[in-house]
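Write out this protein's structure.
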Amino acid sequence: MNIRSFMPQFLAATAFAVAMFVGATDASAQQTPGGAVEAHHHLAAMHHAHAMDHLSALHHHAAAHAASNTAVDREVVTEHARAAGEHLDAARRHQQAEEQAMTPAERTAHRANLDTIHAAHAEAARHHQALTAEVARPTPDPHVVAQHSAAMFHAVRRAQDAHQTIGHSIGVHDHGAPPAQPAAAASAAPAAVHH
């Protein structure tokens, strides 16, 4: 076989291999370990966990003061409410970025969980707004602080649970579970807060 008859076949095979590689790279770049989906998934999970940590501590503080009919430490509740809101905002940003990095098929397959996350984030934001207004008062009501911190915790937890379901389904796993619901949140939170 001479080189001239082999060259068109070689060029065609090379072009095909390059096209397959580029196509595979474009389709799977988001899903490779360390890709955009995985990076944003881990960051969203971390921010959910940090928000729940602050909300759990806030709820315990407020519930203890509600039980003893004493005033909450305004600096403590303000700091926890602020931090929980910042982590919620960061979790929402990373969740949106993760969703944008998913393939259209993944977004379609996980629409119910994505809708749950969006609704839970919106609910958490509403409770954060009410919580922020309460802790801004000269003497925040510990019952109200406990109620909104528990409700916000539950909403963030629902978002994180749906988020983990998506991650496991597409092969991205969290590095550790978020904190468990505090016992005081279950007992001291109003019945309307439980889901």
